[in-house]
Each structure stands twice: as C-alpha cells, then as structure tokens.
C-alpha cells in the first residue's frame, strides 16, 4: 500500500499552477468566425422551415455556454458527436446524394462521407481516452488501499458495478431512448463514480482496521482444510461467501 505522506489536496488553484507550466496557443480566430457563420445559417434555415422538436433541442443546445468542467465538457462533446453522426447516416441523406447522378452530388456525397469518417475517428479516440483515464485514476486510488483480498474484493465489485451500468444504458437504448437521454444517464453514472472514488479514497484507515481482525486470508483457510476435510469444503465456501457479504467494503462504494 502506497504511503500518503507528502500528498496535497488537488484543488483548482493547485491544478492552475500545474498547467501554467504548459501554456498552449490560443484558439484560431477561424473558430469564432466559423461558429458565427454556423449560427447565421441556423437562423436562416429556421426562418425558411420550422425546425422539428428534436432540431429545436439541438439549436438550444448549441446556444448554451460550454461546460466549465473538463470532464463534463468531454461528455458533452461525445453527446454532440453522436448527434452529428446520427444526422450523417447515409440512410438520412436525400436520394440524390445516396444515388448521385451529377458531379456536384457526387462531390457533396464524398464530403459528407469524409466528414462522417472524421467524426467516427474523433469519437473513438475520445472514448478510448476517457476509458484509459478512468482506469488510471482507479488504479492510482487502489495503490493506497490494502494489497490483499480486500483490494481484490473492491476490484471485483467495481467490475460488477460497471457491468450493471452498461446494462442500464443498453436497456435505455433498446427501449427507444434518445441520444440526449442516453448521455444524461451516462453523466449521472459518471457523477456516481466520482462519489464512489471519493468514498473509497477516504476509506484507507477503515480498511487497515478491518485487517486487524483477519489474521489469515481466505486462501490460507482453504489450504488448511483442503485434503484433510474435503467434505467440509462446500459448507466452508458458503460460510466464506457470507463472510464476504458481511465485511465486503466494496458494498459501500459500488
């Protein structure tokens, strides 16, 4: 178990001082110009044809200020990329673009396909980054937990929790939930992970204390009984499972 000596709270001021060492160039002026052009096009299209309920939601979303928190910003980017990819599906294109008969239609069709490919790649990269970052954070927290069967229990409980979260998302999608609904659920789950990690990080001392009442690991108990009293293994397994249930620290977090 890693030592906590010398650790400091990760505050906004601490992060600001850290990232001040790595300045980044300002955004190109083209970003604000293109954003303004797109806003003007949206207004023009809305005047010519009343937007549907779903399109109105997207317009309202585009007019909202971007999330301040990095994590929330990434999830919002994921949501918007999924919305864009949904609109770029060839099945939603006009017939003249799906079956181009002119060079102009062929060119526009090619542009849309390239645009879709770029968003597909960007979405895949963002999901991969989030997944690896989440695993890295959890692994870092686990270095401060006891490296025995208690840590194994917590990892198993986390894996079970993640499967349950994925099943919840799959059920929502299967029932016809929108992309917006799906990402509202995903963000709720992400906030739950944050709370669980905070609880886990503050439980180190409790985990140390619980170890004082377990002089031998479960594996040692099995070694003592195996071979001498094989007939008791089934009953012992039941008792061990009950022991896990009663003192499983992961139940408090996942």
Structural domains: how many: 2
Continuous helix count = 11
Order of helices and strands: HHHHHHHHHHH
Q: How many strand segments?
A: 0
End-to-end distance, in Å? Answer: 21 Å
Beta-strand content bin: under 5%
Structural class comes to mainly alpha
Tell me about the biggest sheet? Answer: none
Task: Kindly describe this structure.
This is Alfin N-terminal domain-containing protein. Residues 217-250 form the Alfin N-terminal domain. InterPro entries: Alfin_N (IPR021998). It comes from Microthlaspi erraticum. GO terms for molecular function: histone binding. The protein has 254 residues and is mainly alpha-helical. The chain folds into 2 domains: 67-143; 146-254, no CATH class. It is built from 11 helices and no strands. The protein has helices at residues 12-19, 29-48, 53-62, 70-87, 95-98, 103-142, 149-174, 179-201, 204-211, 218-225, 233-247. Helix 7 runs antiparallel to helix 8 (179-201). The longest helix has 40 residues, at 103-142. It is globular, with a radius of gyration of 26 Å. Mean pLDDT is 78; it is low at 209-219, 229-233 and 235-254.
